[in-house]
């Protein structure tokens, strides 16, 4: 028996070594391919990086930096506890979180993708919330900002502000729905102390403002670096692949801004809504960077983003259906009808239910 156990342990050891070496080899090959692609398609890579820089200066910095600074200031000045008091009951009943999260979650819905993650990280570092609560909030505090959805997607791409508003409202509602669902699957919620444990320090508003400005500046620099990097490789994808499903899928997976600009010419608004809800790996890496101390489950985060994309698409479909003006304006575009969305609202709801069941089973395994 001992001999068999020893042989089995040796086999497992060699298997783990083989897997580790294979993973390292795959990573090395991938990095080499990226370097070769950057050299071979240097012109396309440069053009993509320039587009990324233009987007950073034209959209990201003006729309994200103020909200990131405000979010950081609220936490560093101790105002998160004060502002959260009126919303304590709502935060506890709907999301199973203490009241300090209220301003951060609100800012995440009106500020843009990384704002919520930056605020949650600041709350955790200040000692206001537990690690488990912060990990939980990070799973659903994910939303594109109104400036991006209304001005860029609605006005610039579709020349229709109503479509941007529908997308914005759908994104905000998806955050609330996901927060409630995540709380339902949280078996540890009863063990949380819902009153904030933050210790208010004698910090002047001036000092808190300076710290918030410095912190948000570092954060926006990090975000812009990711956007430029992913935009550079998106430029290579655009040059290598013809416009089609594969190119659109790759761009949606990698970088949301490049994807939406291309999809707006050939896809329905619901597809755009899914892409916005999913966010793309560029945004995901920005979130991971902001939440480095929390060590969130990347697989679970990725799955929830898919679910959020489906929910956002469903809500957008309903919004377009009930708002005749938006539907009429969109129907004159050069894209196909809502059949491209792939089914009915009922089928979409069924797909979401299946995804939630899978999420629940994954939660039980952990």
Give the low-confidence spans. Answer: 330-366
**Largest sheet, if any?**
none
Any idea what the shape is? globular
Question: From N to C, what is the helix and strand string?
Answer: HHHHHHHHHHHHHHHHH
User: Rg from C-alpha positions?
Assistant: 22 Å
Helix content: over 70%
Structural class, by secondary structure, is: mainly alpha
Strand tally:
0
Strand proportion, as a percent range, falls in under 5%
Number of helices: 17
Arithmetic mean pLDDT:
76
Quaternary structure: single chain
Span from first to last CA? 31 Å
Give a structural overview:
The chain is 78% helix and 0% strand. Helix 6 (113-126) runs parallel beside helix 14 (281-290), helix 9 (161-184) crosses helix 15 (298-322) and helix 10 runs antiparallel to helix 11. It has helices at residues 2-40, 42-76, 79-84, 88-95, 101-111, 113-126, 131-138, 146-157, 161-184, 205-240, 245-254, 256-263, 269-278, 281-290, 298-322, 324-331, 345-365. The two termini are 31 Å apart. Residues 330-366 have low confidence and may be disordered. The chain is mainly α and 366 residues long.
Explain briefly what this protein structure is.
The protein is mainly α. It contains 17 helices and no strands.
Topology:
Blueprint: H1 2-40, H2 42-76, H3 79-84, H4 88-95, H5 101-111, H6 113-126, H7 131-138, H8 146-157, H9 161-184, H10 205-240, H11 245-254, H12 256-263, H13 269-278, H14 281-290, H15 298-322, H16 324-331, H17 345-365
């Amino acid at each position: 028996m001992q001999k068999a156990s020893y042989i089995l342990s040796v086999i497992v050891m060699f298997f783990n070594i083989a897997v580790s070496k294979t993973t390292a080899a795959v990573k090395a090959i991938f990095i080499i391919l990226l370097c070769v692609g950057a050299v071979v398609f240097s012109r396309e890579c440069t053009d993509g990086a320039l587009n990324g820089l233009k987007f950073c200066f034209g959209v990201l910095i003006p729309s994200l930096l103020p909200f990131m600074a405000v979010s950081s200031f609220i936490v560093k000045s101790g105002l998160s506890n004060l502002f959260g008091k009126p919303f304590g009951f709502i935060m506890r009943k709907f999301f199973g979180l203490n009241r300090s999260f209220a301003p951060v979650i609100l800012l995440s819905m009106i500020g843009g993708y990384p704002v919520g993650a930056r605020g949650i990280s600041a709350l955790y570092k200040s000692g206001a919330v537990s690690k488990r609560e912060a990990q939980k909030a990070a799973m659903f505090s994910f939303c594109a900002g109104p400036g991006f959805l209304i001005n860029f997607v609605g006005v610039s791409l579709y020349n229709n502000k109503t479509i941007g508003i529908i997308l914005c409202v759908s994104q905000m509602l998806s955050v609330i729905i996901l927060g409630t669902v995540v709380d339902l699957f949280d078996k540890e919620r009863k063990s949380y102390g819902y009153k904030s444990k933050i210790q208010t320090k004698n910090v002047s508003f001036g000092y808190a403002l300076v710290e918030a400005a410095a912190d948000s500046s570092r954060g926006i620099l990090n975000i812009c670096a990711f956007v430029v990097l992913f935009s550079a490789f998106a430029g290579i994808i655009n040059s290598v692949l013809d416009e089609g499903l594969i190119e659109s899928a790759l761009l949606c997976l990698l970088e949301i801004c490049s994807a939406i600009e291309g999809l707006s010419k050939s896809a329905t608004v619901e597809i755009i809504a899914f892409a916005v809800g999913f966010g793309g790996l560029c945004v995901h890496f920005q979130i991971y960077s902001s939440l480095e101390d929390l060590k969130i489950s990347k697989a679970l985060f990725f799955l929830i983003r898919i679910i959020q994309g489906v929910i956002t698409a469903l809500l957008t479909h309903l919004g377009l259906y009930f708002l005749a003006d938006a539907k009429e304006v969109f129907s004159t575009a050069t894209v196909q009808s809502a059949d491209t969305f792939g089914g009915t609202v009922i089928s979409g709801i069924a797909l979401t239910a299946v995804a939630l069941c899978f999420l629940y089973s994954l939660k039980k395994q952990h």
